[in-house]
Amino acid sequence: MSCSGDADNQASATKEEHEEKVESIEEVSNTMPSASQITSEMMQNPQVLAALQHRLDSIVGTPSGYIDSLPKPIKRRVNALKNIQVKSMKIEAKFYEEVHELERKYGDLYQPLFEKRQSIISGVYEPNDEECEWESDPEDDDEEEEEDKPAIKKEQAVEKSKLEDAEGEDIKGIPEFWLTVFKNVPLFQEMVQEHDEPLLQHLQDIRVIFSPPDEPMGFTLEFVFDSNPYFTNKILTKYYKLQSQPDDKEPFTFEGPEIINCTGCKIDWVKGKNVTVKTIKKKQKHKGRGTVRTVTKQVANDSFFNFFNPPEVPEDDSELDPDTEALLTSDFEIGHMIRERIVPRAVLYFTGEAGDDDFDEEDEEDDEDEEAGFNNVGDSDDSEGANDSDYDPEKDPMSKETPKECKQQ
Question: Which of 362, 342, 340 is nearest to 257 (CA)?
Answer without folding.
Answer: 340
